[in-house]
């Protein structure tokens, strides 16, 4: 969900206002994913590297998570959305009220079998792979397979992403789902996340639908 800071700066606002506008964009994208029949939607909300940001911005992002859960939980649950968190969210650095909101949303939606909406929070792709490898070592497996790794990632049991949409004109994965993205299509848009409307989302999906996916083989 990149570009919140630049969106705010363009308007002479502080960065947290950009994240607030980003949260509003997210609400619409979750709703639109359901209309489109998307089965898995994963958003990158906070990376393991985002701790380098000023404390007030970090605090603001976690407050927005609390606010999001407060305002959206009822609708998410009524719509059968299953919320998951990918990343080290039960971490001492994460504010208590955010952890309470996470626990609440996970518990409330755990039996839902509609859209799987995953929020990557305190998430890093490399840290995720290291965690998986350490778990495998502990389990005593000698000969590690790809499926051993996949089944120890936060995304265990989920399909790899068909498409990764990067907003705000950046051209990199930034440690997002780096194992899972091996054959994902990457769609880039210059749109800043707060301006990422359902229309822009659909344009990105149409671009993805035009791609020729061969997974290393021939057609
Ligand atoms: C990246 O844009 C955005 C973030 C690091 C935070 C995203 C958080 C939200 C949208 C808040 C709501 C979250 C949830 C899960 C409800 P940036 O700040 O790097 O933008 P820039 O590159 O323009 O500076």
What's the N-to-C terminus distance? Answer: 33 Å
Q: Give a quick account of the main beta sheet: strands, pairing sense, barrel closure.
A: 3 strands, parallel
Rg of Cα set:
18 Å
Bound small-molecule species: farnesyl diphosphate
Quickly count the helices: 7
**CATH class category:** Alpha Beta
N-to-C SSE series?
A: HHEHEHEHHEEH
CATH-level-4 superfamily name: Decaprenyl diphosphate synthase-like
User: What is the subunit arrangement here?
Assistant: single chain
- Beta-strand percentage? 5-15%
Record the strand order, biggest sheet.
Answer: 1-3-2
- The share of residues in helices is 40-55%
Mean pLDDT rating: 97
Number of separate strands? 5
- Uncertain segments are none
- Overall number of structural domains: 1
Instruction: Kindly identify the CATH topology.
Output: Undecaprenyl pyrophosphate synthetase
Spell out the key features of this protein.
single chain; 219 residues; alpha/beta; two-stranded parallel sheet; 5 strands; 46% helix; globular; binds farnesyl diphosphate
Molecular structure report:
The chain contains seven helices and five strands. The chain has 219 residues and is of the alpha/beta class. The protein has a single domain, classed as 3-Layer(aba) Sandwich (Undecaprenyl pyrophosphate synthetase), CATH 3.40.1180. The chain is globular, with a radius of gyration of 18 Å. It binds farnesyl diphosphate. Farnesyl diphosphate binds next to helix 1, helix 2, strand 1 and helix 3.
């Amino acid at each position: 969900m990149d570009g919140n800071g630049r969106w705010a700066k363009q308007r002479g606002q502080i960065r947290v206002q950009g994240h607030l506008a980003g949260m509003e964009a997210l609400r619409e994208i979750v709703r639109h994913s359901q209309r489109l029949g998307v089965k898995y939607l994963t958003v990158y909300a906070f990376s393991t590297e985002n701790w380098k940001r000023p404390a007030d911005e970090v605090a603001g992002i976690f407050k927005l998570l609390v606010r999001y859960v407060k305002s959206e939980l009822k609708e998410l649950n009524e719509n059968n959305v299953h919320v998951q968190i990918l990343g080290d969210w039960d971490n001492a650095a994460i504010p208590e009220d955010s952890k309470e909101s996470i626990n609440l949303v996970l518990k409330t939606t755990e039996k839902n079998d509609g859209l799987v909406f995953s929020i990557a929070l305190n998430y890093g792709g490399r840290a995720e792979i290291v965690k998986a490898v350490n778990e495998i070592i502990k389990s005593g497996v000698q000969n590690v397979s790809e499926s051993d790794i996949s089944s120890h990632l936060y995304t265990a049991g989920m399909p790899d992403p068909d498409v990764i949409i990067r907003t705000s004109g950046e051209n990199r994965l930034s440690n997002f789902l780096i194992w899972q993205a091996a054959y994902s299509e990457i769609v880039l848009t210059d749109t800043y996340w707060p301006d990422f409307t359902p229309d822009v989302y659909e344009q990105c999906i149409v671009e993805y639908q035009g791609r020729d996916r061969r997974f290393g083989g021939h057609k």
